[in-house]
Amino acid sequence: MAHFDLPLPELRTYRSGTAEPDGFGDFWTRTLGEARAAAKPVELTEVATPLRGVTTYDVTFTGYAGQPIKAWLNVPAGASGPLPIAVEFIGYGGGRGRPLEWLLWNAAGYAHLVMDTRGQGGNWRGGDTPDPDADGAGPSSPGFLTRGVRSPETHYYRRLFTDAARAVETVAELPGVDTSKVVTTGKSQGGALSIAAAGLVPDRVAAVIAGVPFLCDIRRAVTVTDSFPFQEIVTFLRANADRAEQTFATLDHFDVVNLARRITAPALLSTALMDTVCPPSGVFAAFNEITSSKEIDVYDWDGHEGGRAFFDTKTLEFAAAHLLS
User: Fold this and answer.
1) What is the pLDDT of residue 122?
2) Phi then psi dihedrals of residue 42, to 5 deg
3) Annotated catalytic residue, options 5, 252, 255, 275
4) What is the pTM of this model?
5) What domain count does the chain have?
6) Residues near 109 by Cβ (< 8 Å), separated by ≥ 6?
């Protein structure tokens, strides 16, 4: 894929034209308040694995509306003292998979909480968390972007963003963790959730890492790429042309550009100039809203793989600079 978006000098100054919806802050304050009011204590069960250097716990915490969300907690075996912790979110269609798929952060000396993604895990890395509110949300195209799109109240990502924020808050209930050293992290959808969680509970997050984040500048993304998942919105609007205004008004509540400006922690993002899944203009739109200290890695010749091990290395270096110094 050739470079298809704005030239890099224009990307570096690009700002989204999407306005923050009226009542946006109140919407999220109310949503998180309801989730906290319905919360139950976290459940941890140690799990036997073939891994000798890592201790694994099967975690259940409560997310949106007090609904149970699964996670893995991997901790370096024999670690002493409170550890910094990475809270990781998963890319589109994936679930938490198996514990041995998540060893990078443990190898670097961190505790690692991997949140399962409600209703996902059918495309890669199986999942274990249902989405109880998926039924009755009105028509949608296959996938998650238009599920419940008739209203912000019923949209799928209202539930998932809340789960992500609650995962960060759950850190306070985990043993052996330094709650002052929490990094949110993830790629693609996971990157969007990393930004969202850091914007929703900024006082709980010490660093933010988002690789090629999804859900950035949604209104523009659907006009510059033919790739899925953004094409789900186009598919839906072809069948429901009279619902375009309502659809985008709902999606504005889950455009992470509107949550990026609430981040207070140091942030590292990445983008790839050949990435048609998460166009670089969207990533820069989110990046340019962040007012805390920030860095962005740009990969000229990558698509959605977004830097691969090069960015993984930068991720650990960035986290160490802000959490281990």
Assistant:
1) 79
2) -65, 145
3) 275
4) 0.97
5) 1
6) 76, 79, 83, 84, 324
